[in-house]
Specification:
Layout: E1 2-4, E2 7-9, H1 12-39, H2 47-98
Antiparallel strand pairs: 1-2
Length: 104
Amino acid sequence: MTAMAGYCKVEFEALSRLIKDLSGCAGGMQSAMKQLKDIGPKGSGSAELEEACDHFQDKWGYGIKLIAEATGGITEKVAESGRLFQHLEDKVAAQVHSVKVADR
């Protein structure tokens, strides 16, 4: 949304890109953690390496899960805001078009 000469203009194309990017971000984080867990160093022959990787995945897995959940919530709120702005813009446009101007 940009402020222009006393009014706001919603940039719906940019808002759509933001929604798409946020949605992809949450999925990407979860996918990356799943791939790390699936790959894992099991059988590497180094108990210390396996333990360090397990610790990393446990610690970051939880954090990434929380971030992905928050991103999903933000994505829905941004989408909802976009729908509301679009609805209001449509109503304002309909009101403007319904105004009758007397011929001079």
